[in-house]
Amino acid sequence: MKAREKFASLDKCSYLGHLSTDRSFDVFNPSTGELLATLPDMGPAETRAAIDRAYAAQAGWSAMTARDRSDMLWRWHQLIVTHTDDLASILTAEMGKPLGEARSEVSHAAAYLQWYAEEANRNYGETISAPSTDRRMLVIKQPIGVIGAITPWNFPASMVARKISPALAAGCVIVLKPGEQTPLVAGAMFALAQEAGFPEGVVNLIYASEGGAVGSELCSNLKVRKISFTGSTEVGRLVMRQCSDQVKKVSLELGGNAPFIVFDDADVDAAVDGAIQAKFRNAGQTCVSTNRLYVQAGVHDEFAEKFTERVRGLSAGNGFNPEVAVGPLIDTHELAKIDAHIAGSVEKGGRIRCGGRRSRIGGTFFVPTVLTSMSAAMRIAQEETFGHVAPIFRFENAEQVVREANDTIYGLAAYFYSSNLKRIWRVAEALEYGMVGINTGRMSSEAAPFGGIKQSGIGREGSRHGLEDYLEMKYVCMGGI
To answer: CB under 8 Å to 306, separation ≥6 — which residues?
Structure first.
């Protein structure tokens, strides 16, 4: 069955029955240009209607026992596991990533639902020793309320689950707007949520071709008590400004400029493996993708040679081809950004070791690229590329590389390879990032807190801390005991 037909079979759209609009927009396969679906194009009016529906459902959902909410999340988890292949096919069709990566993402989405199905039962309060014998003091934690969530196009399944599952586990209801380039897998997942038995109004989906008007309504509507946004730092700043008049709580997972550091005592072959994984997963279109590879002088040439040879073997193409390692870029905007970053680097002395050009198969495909002879003055050193271009910078000592790695407004993820235990501790503590991977190129897990510092965001997703982000703390003092 084609991905288009799989979407139609999973997405009954009955959860959109309360929303109507005469506007529509098309969703295309970035690899082939194929029309995948035509969806209702919603705006502020439809968003308000969804918020009203969620607000009406909030009291009933939060009054349910944690066990009942847990059971519903478990049922949704199981349905996603059952439909992994269908969801992965939809994901590959609308986003372009290789089918194996898509299956892995769907499994990751299911893992978040499983984790928070378990965490729903662990919303603990506390008691406090009172200053007098006639008082009792305690803290309870209650759901914030209606959540407005905005997810990006690059991980359209796992991002949805990562935001929705802790909110639902905490007792919140949600209105979610997925990325306009990749809304189909979210629609299929919401249809499965309905099949799992979630009450009317608890999960609400907004399809929209343009996020500004929908986002403004979510941020300004008094019935929405929190915004959870994943996307660029530029838009994250706008979300913060729009929420500030209401002092609305926000969780922001924003851009990154991840360094990947290889010290001269590292296992070079392992570092090459890790760098391939950290740079080329999802064609480099991940917020935690390494953007700058720093390699110490003693192993620079060996690493650059081995890494370049591996990259030359990565084929770009349609994600449904089992031999393809790298899919397309999501659109021509990202393609133009890669062109500009490479051209700017070459102008300032950078050397193209492989790739450096658009693919002959056309579309938004780009040949995986390695650059050397790089410097901090280049644009690529300061901006997030969001594509499969790997610039390698040479460094001399730990103090220098930590200073250069931290020289950015971003602070999401960092990676480094070393076998020196003293160095491992000191560098891990010195790097100004919310997440640090040591001797690994991949560290995301539903059990770990995901998020950044500086202008890479506020709050954490995943882990027990992710549940706390959807709860309000209430102090209760009882006198006359």
So the answer is: 268, 269, 272
**Rg (Cα) of the chain, in Å, rounded?**
23
Domain boundaries defined on the chain: 3-254+455-477, 258-445
Given 3.40.30.10, 3.30.565.10, 3.40.50.300, 3.40.605.10, which CATH number is that of 3-254+455-477? 3.40.605.10
What is the model's pLDDT at position 12? 59
- Is residue 207 within 8 A of residue 187, CB to CB? The reply is yes
Q: What CA–CA distance (Å, rounded) separates 280 from 289?
A: 8
Q: What is the DSSP letter of 366?
A: B
Strand 173-177 versus strand 203-205 pairing type: parallel
Catalytic residues: 253
Number of Cβ within 10 Å of residue 252's Cβ equals: 23
* Confidence bin at 27 (pLDDT 50/70/90): very high
pTM of the model: 0.94
- At 11 the pLDDT is 67
